[in-house]
Write a structure and sequence with these properties.
The protein is of the alpha/beta class and 405 residues long. The protein folds into 2 domains: 279 residues, Alpha-Beta Barrel (TIM Barrel); 96 residues, Immunoglobulin-like (Sandwich), CATH 2.60.40. It is 27% helix and 24% strand. The radius of gyration is 22 Å and the shape is globular. 43% of the residues are buried. The chain binds alpha-D-galactopyranose.
């Protein structure tokens, strides 16, 4: 009798392991939320997070679609407990993670945590290597909804294998958790990530500048345009439930309002997760306006789920296209120069379309209306030239929608 039940348990175990997979359907559109790292590094605590959560609701960010509140590195105690369990830092989070999750859930938001595939996290806290199944159970028991899983101190670990292990551990723990792969693009996760995670970072860490590189010895942080230009051939890997992640945003972290608008427009064109990285307790009105711009967000969240692409460069302008549902298109013109420039764009002179997806803007047989997504106004149609002045590093982002066939 005992032998039969043991065999049965073993068979169920094997069945679970064999069927381990990612939790499908948790990120049909790019995840939106807030992450503590860009502004606070490891200086996080319960009151700060609660205040941020309250602001997400009060400032209309929740209403705009932001959902996940993610604690990055530094939420844990420096050591595991006597049973090898991860524990929250008792000073920073005196009521532990479950109480914080309850608070976040009570506001209609979702809760994310960070850990690392290596023996220690990047900031030196206990990593998950060798504890994957145990840690996944802790997250499930705390009602975690999102896990960002980093890549420091991984020694000779194989990246794909390590992320499969954590995916399976999460699946085994039974609570649907968005799995955010963060190995900086070092092992080309766009080639293997689709069946494992819901998003994967494509570069090293972002920093709050337009186009700079800041070296830290063995690694660098990258400005907005360095990140955009770093991965040119990966857009086809991105799509519903498996996104290229261009890193947490730096909107509101010190660039000009124009640069913030362009950064936000580009993350939307790229269908990147929109994870805010600023101090939501202290935002300029311009920052709130940018982050809650629902027309721009709807480009990011468009159900077609196609990552946009650079169509061309004209004079000082970067010109990007993103096909949207219902034969609509988003188009973005960014003034890269350090002075105001005149944009003069004749739709009729261009063969507009997305070759990779076989989609065309047929201007011979159709006319498209043009809507300015920052001014929230119709500004003409594709029969006319688009002529306007755009400030340095600022953006004109429009939606083209068909009016005549
Ligand atoms: C890495 C990640 C960052 C952040 C830090 C935390 O650098 O890429 O996004 O999570 O670790 O230490």
């Amino acid at each position: 009798m005992r032998k039969t039940s043991l065999t049965l348990t073993f068979l169920v175990f094997i069945l679970v392991i064999c069927h381990a997979q990612k939790f499908e359907g948790l990120a049909y559109t790019p995840p939106m939320g807030w992450n503590s790292w860009n502004t606070f590094k490891t200086n996080i605590n319960e009151q700060l997070v609660k205040d941020i959560v309250d602001k997400i609701v009060e400032e209309g960010l929740k209403d705009a679609g932001y959902e996940y509140v993610v604690l990055d590195d530094g939420w844990m105690a420096k050591e595991r407990d006597a049973n090898g369990n991860l524990i929250a830092d008792p000073i920073k989070f005196p009521n532990g993670m479950k109480a914080l999750a309850d608070y976040i859930h009570s506001k209609g938001l979702k809760f994310g945590l960070y850990n690392c595939a290596g023996s220690k996290t990047c900031a030196g806290y206990p990593g998950s290597r060798g504890y994957e199944y145990q840690d996944a159970k802790s997250y499930a028991s705390w009602d975690v909804d999102y896990l960002k899983y980093d890549w420091c101190n991984t020694d000779k670990l194989n990246a794909e294998g390590a992320y499969v292990t954590m995916r399976d551990a999460l699946y085994n723990a039974g609570r649907p958790i968005v799995f955010s792969i963060c190995e900086w693009g070092d092992n080309q996760p766009w080639k293997w990530g689709e069946k494992i995670g819901h998003l994967w970072r494509v570069t090293g860490d972002i920093i709050n500048c337009w186009d700079c590189e800041v070296g830290h010895g063995t690694w660098s942080s990258w400005g907005i345009w360095k990140i955009i230009n770093m991965r040119k051939q990966i857009r086809k890997a991105s799509g519903p439930d498996h996104w290229n992640d261009f890193d947490m945003m730096e909107v509101g972290n010190g660039m000009t309002a124009a640069e913030d608008r362009s950064h936000f427009a580009m993350w939307s064109m790229l269908a990147s997760p929109l994870i805010m990285g600023n101090d939501l307790r202290d935002m300029a009105n311009e920052t709130i306006k940018t982050l809650t711009n629902k027309e721009v967000i709807s480009v990011n969240q468009d159900k077609l789920g196609v990552q946009g692409f650079r169509f061309t460069n004209q004079n000082n302008f970067e010109i990007w296209l993103k096909p949207l549902e219902a034969d609509s298109w988003a188009m973005t013109f960014i003034n890269m120069s350090d002075k105001e420039e005149v944009l003069d764009f004749d739709f009729k002179k261009h063969h507009l379309g997305d070759d990779l997806n076989g989609l065309r803007i047929d201007l011979k047989n159709n006319v498209y209306k043009i809507r300015d997504l920052f001014k929230h106004a119709e500004i003409g149609d594709t029969n006319q030239k688009l002529k306007t002045t755009i400030g340095s590093h600022d953006v004109l982002m429009v939606k083209l929608h068909k009016i005549k066939s």
